[in-house]
Amino acid sequence: MNNGQHELVQCLMEAFFRFRLLRNKSFVPGMKQSEMRMLHLVARHRRETGRGIKIAELSRIMWVTSPTITQLTNSLEARGLVERYTDANDRRVVYVQLTEAGETVLKQASDAFCARFGRLVQHLGPEKSKLLADLLAECLAFLRADMEKNC
């Protein structure tokens, strides 16, 4: 790798790292990013299946242990944002679903997220926004394929 390539690699790595730092910022004050992600996954699962999501499934999707999901669920349940229920046929299986308050918080976060990206589109303009979206999709496809091939 020559010096020019090395500098470009460093530049890309730094840019991706800075985006990672933004990832920890929640769109709802007092909510952790992991809590918002869990609310989003619970809501998406209900839209797709019509029911709550299993604790074990949340653990698999979020790549964290079941005790971590249990802690997140406890925190969200204490604030009235989710509730648990057991499977009628197998009481060992626990599901999580959003409450009305959870739906409200998720809508608030979604509105704030869309507003922020709307401002970004206004800042960049439609052509640069489309180019950025295409480049990011291409980067993601490459990085996923490269990880599968080399990990």
Number of domains: 1
Proportion of beta-strand residues: 5-15%
Q: Detail the poorly predicted runs.
A: none
Strand order of the largest sheet: 1-3-2
Query: What is the count of helical runs?
Result: 6
Helix and strand run: HHEHHEEHH
Mean pLDDT: 89
Helix content: over 70%
Supply the helix-strand structural class: mainly alpha
CATH class: Mainly Alpha
User: Which architecture per CATH?
Assistant: Orthogonal Bundle
Radius of gyration: 19 Å
Summarize the structure.
Helices cover 72% and strands 8% of the residues. With 151 residues, it is mainly α.
Describe the fold and architecture:
This protein is mostly helical and 151 residues long. It has one domain: Arc Repressor Mutant, subunit A (Orthogonal Bundle). It contains six helices and three strands. The protein has helices at residues 3-23, 33-49, 55-62, 66-78, 100-124, 126-150; strands spanning 53-54, 82-86, 94-98. A hairpin with a 7-residue loop joins strand 2 and strand 3. The radius of gyration is 19 Å and the shape is globular. The model has no long low-confidence stretch (mean pLDDT 89).
